[in-house]
Write a structure and sequence with these properties.
28% of the residues are buried. This protein has a 7-stranded mixed sheet, with helices on both faces. The protein contains 4 helices and 7 strands; from the N terminus they run βααβββαβαββ. The chain is an alpha+beta fold and 156 residues long. Helix 1 crosses helix 2.
Protein backbone atom coordinates (compact mmCIF):
# COMPACT_ATOMS: atom_id res chain seq x y z
CA UNK A 1 0.00 0.00 0.00
CA UNK A 2 1.21 3.51 -0.84
CA UNK A 3 0.21 6.26 1.57
CA UNK A 4 1.36 9.67 2.79
CA UNK A 5 4.07 9.33 5.42
CA UNK A 6 3.45 10.23 9.05
CA UNK A 7 6.01 11.53 11.54
CA UNK A 8 6.08 8.09 13.21
CA UNK A 9 7.40 6.68 9.89
CA UNK A 10 10.54 8.82 10.20
CA UNK A 11 12.69 6.12 11.90
CA UNK A 12 12.05 3.61 9.10
CA UNK A 13 12.53 6.27 6.40
CA UNK A 14 15.82 7.27 8.05
CA UNK A 15 16.96 3.63 8.18
CA UNK A 16 16.32 3.17 4.44
CA UNK A 17 17.84 6.52 3.47
CA UNK A 18 20.89 6.17 5.70
CA UNK A 19 21.72 2.73 4.30
CA UNK A 20 21.70 4.31 0.83
CA UNK A 21 23.87 7.20 2.07
CA UNK A 22 26.37 4.89 3.82
CA UNK A 23 26.65 2.11 1.28
CA UNK A 24 25.96 3.45 -2.23
CA UNK A 25 26.56 6.28 -4.65
CA UNK A 26 22.83 6.67 -5.30
CA UNK A 27 23.35 9.92 -3.42
CA UNK A 28 26.65 11.76 -3.15
CA UNK A 29 25.99 13.01 0.35
CA UNK A 30 27.79 11.37 3.25
CA UNK A 31 25.76 13.09 5.96
CA UNK A 32 23.11 10.76 7.33
CA UNK A 33 19.55 11.95 7.91
CA UNK A 34 18.30 12.13 11.48
CA UNK A 35 14.86 10.91 12.46
CA UNK A 36 14.12 14.38 13.81
CA UNK A 37 15.22 16.06 10.56
CA UNK A 38 12.89 13.86 8.51
CA UNK A 39 9.94 14.28 10.88
CA UNK A 40 10.46 18.07 10.96
CA UNK A 41 10.54 18.23 7.13
CA UNK A 42 7.23 16.40 6.70
CA UNK A 43 4.85 19.36 7.17
CA UNK A 44 6.48 21.26 4.30
CA UNK A 45 7.88 18.42 2.18
CA UNK A 46 5.58 15.60 1.05
CA UNK A 47 6.75 12.06 1.78
CA UNK A 48 5.05 8.86 0.64
CA UNK A 49 5.75 5.34 1.88
CA UNK A 50 5.24 1.84 0.52
CA UNK A 51 3.94 -0.22 3.39
CA UNK A 52 3.56 -3.99 3.70
CA UNK A 53 1.69 -4.64 6.91
CA UNK A 54 3.61 -2.70 9.53
CA UNK A 55 6.86 -2.58 7.51
CA UNK A 56 7.95 0.40 5.42
CA UNK A 57 9.61 -0.92 2.25
CA UNK A 58 10.44 2.39 0.61
CA UNK A 59 9.66 6.08 0.30
CA UNK A 60 9.49 8.96 -2.13
CA UNK A 61 9.64 12.68 -1.52
CA UNK A 62 10.10 15.86 -3.50
CA UNK A 63 11.38 19.34 -2.76
CA UNK A 64 12.15 22.57 -4.60
CA UNK A 65 14.90 22.09 -7.21
CA UNK A 66 16.66 25.36 -6.36
CA UNK A 67 16.00 28.20 -3.97
CA UNK A 68 14.10 31.27 -5.03
CA UNK A 69 10.63 32.09 -6.34
CA UNK A 70 11.60 31.53 -9.97
CA UNK A 71 11.97 27.81 -9.22
CA UNK A 72 8.74 27.45 -7.22
CA UNK A 73 7.21 25.13 -9.84
CA UNK A 74 10.27 22.95 -10.41
CA UNK A 75 11.03 20.11 -8.02
CA UNK A 76 13.58 17.36 -7.48
CA UNK A 77 12.66 14.01 -6.02
CA UNK A 78 14.15 11.10 -4.12
CA UNK A 79 12.82 7.55 -4.23
CA UNK A 80 14.46 4.70 -2.34
CA UNK A 81 13.52 1.13 -1.53
CA UNK A 82 14.86 -1.35 0.99
CA UNK A 83 17.16 -4.03 -0.35
CA UNK A 84 14.93 -6.88 -1.49
CA UNK A 85 11.93 -4.63 -2.22
CA UNK A 86 12.98 -3.75 -5.77
CA UNK A 87 11.35 -5.19 -8.87
CA UNK A 88 7.85 -5.35 -7.38
CA UNK A 89 6.44 -2.11 -8.80
CA UNK A 90 6.82 -0.21 -5.52
CA UNK A 91 9.19 2.39 -6.96
CA UNK A 92 6.76 3.13 -9.78
CA UNK A 93 3.84 3.39 -7.35
CA UNK A 94 5.82 5.70 -5.05
CA UNK A 95 6.74 7.92 -7.99
CA UNK A 96 3.13 8.03 -9.20
CA UNK A 97 2.02 9.16 -5.74
CA UNK A 98 4.69 11.88 -5.62
CA UNK A 99 4.00 13.04 -9.19
CA UNK A 100 0.22 13.11 -8.67
CA UNK A 101 0.68 15.16 -5.50
CA UNK A 102 3.13 17.51 -7.23
CA UNK A 103 0.83 17.96 -10.21
CA UNK A 104 -2.09 18.81 -7.92
CA UNK A 105 0.15 21.33 -6.13
CA UNK A 106 0.91 23.15 -9.41
CA UNK A 107 4.37 21.71 -10.04
CA UNK A 108 5.37 22.03 -13.70
CA UNK A 109 8.48 19.86 -13.87
CA UNK A 110 10.36 17.41 -11.70
CA UNK A 111 14.00 16.33 -11.81
CA UNK A 112 15.91 13.23 -10.87
CA UNK A 113 19.60 13.61 -10.04
CA UNK A 114 21.16 10.19 -10.68
CA UNK A 115 24.68 8.85 -10.32
CA UNK A 116 26.04 8.15 -13.78
CA UNK A 117 26.92 4.60 -12.76
CA UNK A 118 23.38 3.86 -11.54
CA UNK A 119 22.16 2.42 -14.84
CA UNK A 120 19.12 0.80 -13.19
CA UNK A 121 17.88 4.17 -11.91
CA UNK A 122 18.38 5.73 -15.35
CA UNK A 123 16.35 2.91 -16.97
CA UNK A 124 13.69 3.19 -14.25
CA UNK A 125 13.25 6.92 -14.81
CA UNK A 126 13.23 6.52 -18.60
CA UNK A 127 10.40 4.00 -18.24
CA UNK A 128 8.48 6.62 -16.25
CA UNK A 129 8.85 9.22 -19.00
CA UNK A 130 11.88 11.13 -17.72
CA UNK A 131 14.30 12.44 -20.33
CA UNK A 132 18.02 12.95 -19.82
CA UNK A 133 18.68 16.68 -20.01
CA UNK A 134 22.25 16.89 -18.67
CA UNK A 135 25.26 14.73 -17.98
CA UNK A 136 27.68 16.46 -15.62
CA UNK A 137 31.05 14.70 -15.52
CA UNK A 138 32.88 14.24 -12.24
CA UNK A 139 30.78 16.62 -10.12
CA UNK A 140 30.28 14.30 -7.13
CA UNK A 141 32.93 12.80 -4.91
CA UNK A 142 32.29 9.81 -2.67
CA UNK A 143 34.27 6.74 -1.63
CA UNK A 144 37.48 8.48 -2.78
CA UNK A 145 36.46 8.72 -6.41
CA UNK A 146 34.68 11.10 -8.78
CA UNK A 147 31.15 10.44 -10.04
CA UNK A 148 29.10 11.80 -12.92
CA UNK A 149 25.63 13.20 -12.31
CA UNK A 150 22.83 12.57 -14.79
CA UNK A 151 19.88 14.96 -14.62
CA UNK A 152 16.58 13.61 -15.91
CA UNK A 153 13.43 15.71 -16.17
CA UNK A 154 9.74 15.09 -16.60
CA UNK A 155 7.24 17.80 -17.49
CA UNK A 156 4.13 17.10 -15.46
Amino acid sequence: MIRPARPDDAPEIAAIWNAIIRDTVATFTTQEKSVREIAMAMPAQPFFVAEDGAEILGFSTYFQFRDGPGYAHTMEHSVHLKEGARGQGLGRALMEAAEDHARAAGVHSIFAGISGENRDAIKFHSALGYKEVAHLPEVGRKFDRWHDLVLMQKIL
